Amino acid sequence: xxxxxxxxxxxxxxxxxxxxxxxxxxxxxxxxxxxxxxxxxxxxxxxxxxxxxxxxxxxxxxxxxxxxxxxxxxxxxxxxxxxxxxxxxxxxxxxxxxxxxxxxxxxxxxxxxxxxxxxxxxxxxxxxxxxxxxxxxxxxxxxxxxxxxxxxxxxxxxxxxxxxxxxxxxxxxxxxxxxxxxxxxxxxxxxxxxxxxxxxxxxxxxxxxxxxxxxxxxxxxxxxxxxxxxxxxxxxxxxxxxxxxxxxxxxxxx
Length: 254
Description:
Number of helices: 9
Number of domains: 1
CATH superfamily: Vaccinia Virus protein VP39
CATH topology: Rossmann fold
CATH architecture: 3-Layer(aba) Sandwich
Order of helices and strands: HEHHHEHEHEHEHEHEE
Helix content: 25-40%
């Protein structure tokens, strides 16, 4: 199957009202809501049927809301780096400061569907699930099989984990019986990808997001901003210094 990218839309400025990180008061309310969720019963959400040759599976739900430890994720990242160093952007899992900057937003809490592209060992996935409503769904797509172990151990029935290629996002959404995502998060290292592949990923993100949807990318370089500007306009950018390496978190509203 040949993929083509068509980034031809004129540059436009991003809307003034973006999905920013919550204020301190909102963060306190969110924390109270999160602990309330942890003490409530698990929702009854059945897995959707899949029609695809890619590896789909629901994250394990046999022990409730459990997440892999930082140490287990760090070991997984190091082993993955030994196998395919070109695919690993950092030997250190994402910090809490970074994942909170990405996930602690009203658009995430309001979302019915969130897509997490290139989640690695699932730090962003975990943070997103902790902010999302109990009726929402999350689709996580990770290309590296070597990073899939911790993702598969996330025991939250709202999560669907896919070992696949972000360029096929729309097919994965269709096969899972999901609609258009409200928020798409991307940790894919655009600066190290071939230009045509990077453009294809940006193009499918644009085609998948409805008007008013939010696209958030966390990167070392400005490459994703250059690629996304013709389609999404100029982003709002925050730098998270308490992460190794420090990363730029760029946000757009379509």
